[in-house]
Hints:
Number of domains: 1
Number of strands: 4
Distance between the termini: 54 Å
Order of helices and strands: HEHEHEHE
CATH topology: Rossmann fold
Strand order of the largest sheet: 2-1-3-4
Helix content: 40-55%
Largest sheet: 4 strands, parallel
CATH class: Alpha Beta
Radius of gyration: 17 Å
Number of helices: 4
Amino acid sequence: MSHPQLFTPEEKLADAKKLSNLPRIIAICGSTRFMTEMNEADLRETEAGRIVVKPGCDLKSPHELWADPVEAEALKARLDDLHRAKIRLADEVLVVGDYIGDSTRAEIAYARSLGKPVRFTYPEVDPDAPDQ
């Protein structure tokens, strides 16, 4: 007796995106010190017909929403969770900038653990690239 195949949430999402005929979704990752470069990458990816998700807050820039250090720490945790959700939603990850810090390194590892292709604006900073 055969049993119906159970699909993972990732498989269901991929199927729904395919059935909806959605363009490729790109998650932009990198240090927020590269927000200008992220905006440029967003522009170029959008012009190429792709949907872009990227960090929406730069906690290194002053703003009333994260002026209180306790609130800022709580917000950072929520934003990290939100960014991981963006990575899950994406078909591919684009890492922007010529520096990879701990947070970005963790995002790259997370994306790769999900089988997401990861590309870099500076391929030489890929933490998993073989040494030259």
